[in-house]
Amino acid sequence: MLVYIIPVVITFCASIQYDIGDHKSIWKKPIWFFLYLYLVLIIGLRFEVGGDTLNYMELYAYQENLSDWTFSFAERFQPFYSLLCALAKTIHPDFFVFQILHSAILNACLFYFFKKNTDNYFTALLVSFSFYYFYFSTEILREALAIMIFILNYDNYKKGNWVKYYLGVSIAIMFHLSALFLIVLPFIKWLRFNKFFIFIFLLSPIVFSKLSYLLGIITGVEMLTRFVVAYEDSYKYSGGFLSTIYLILRIFRYVFCPLILLFIYKVILKKGIKYEPLICLYILLGVGVYYNTIIFERFSNYITPLYMLALSDGIVYCFKRKIISLYRSTVLFCCMIFFISYSSYYMQYRLYRIWIPYYSIFNPQHVKERKLFQM
């Protein structure tokens, strides 16, 4: 547990000191580099930490070396992910080598994105710890790389450099097919948090209720069939009081939390918000989560780092206001609601145990010995 507390405490103190406090110090850059190196090592040297990590470890045994690698979409994994596996396996057959490579790439992209797009990068990192960092770095290994390609490609999206943007999308698809979702993003740049969006939002449940028909069209494309079939029956509502509570929290997480953020920015603060079209799309995808959890959560993952960056900038902005009492209480209340709704999924099935306790290759203990998945 201590290995997780260390970066959180350091990042929290740095956020107070440098982002909210605006203090200058020669230690700012060394702290940032230390956090990068620390995270690369704890994620890269983990041992059977992360639920999907176990599946990736098992399948890694069947990956080719670099000399045997071929470019193909016919295999289980997309070509650039299998290339990364082949590179790691050529260096050393142990899975931890792949983990280090993956962690170094993911953290480099994330840290660069924060540094480039906000002055409040410690707060952005702190927010990522709370909402998505460990999920990205230990669960959705392939998709996380596709997401990193997208957030680095965001400037091309923003500026309308569509040739470069779609080149980036093509690279993202080489890591995970869900990145095909990025093809449609240029067509929603007009979305804004206004009356017309509210109309679309209210209409969206009717559209998503026809989901089976839409999926039928998509599965007509051969390359997408395996992806859709794997996830189309992913959501089964089991009923019961607790299931209802968690369903409500899930919808709150994907729909009402970003709505609250947009309302605070546009109505209370009367301030523009970064990534407004994509956050609006995130809300609409959140409606889709009710009808098919995994498919629309997958798509939402691409917007999550941008949405959370807007949230972190909003937190710092509100704490810096001269009239701070109302803003601080509002921000703290919203952060509490956000945290409860985002943590509910991991509390529901006690999934926090996929990360706690932490084991590394230096003190390995197999999952079966930990009885990780026993209730």
How would you describe what is shown here?
Keywords: Membrane, Transmembrane, Transmembrane helix. The structure is a single chain. The chain has 375 residues and is mainly α. It has 18 helices and no strands. The chain has helices at 2-20, 28-44, 51-60, 79-91, 95-117, 121-131, 133-138, 141-152, 154-159, 162-173, 195-208, 211-218, 222-231, 241-268, 276-291, 293-319, 324-348, 367-370. 35% of the residues are buried. Residues 233-238 have low confidence and may be disordered.
Number of distinct helices: 18
Helix content: 55-70%
Question: Residue-averaged pLDDT, rounded?
Answer: 84
Give the C-alpha Rg: 21 Å
**Class per helix and strand makeup:** mainly alpha
Keywords: Membrane, Transmembrane, Transmembrane helix
InterPro entries: EpsG-like
Transmembrane segments: 31-49, 96-114, 121-153, 165-185, 197-221, 241-265, 277-296, 326-345
Protein name: EpsG family protein
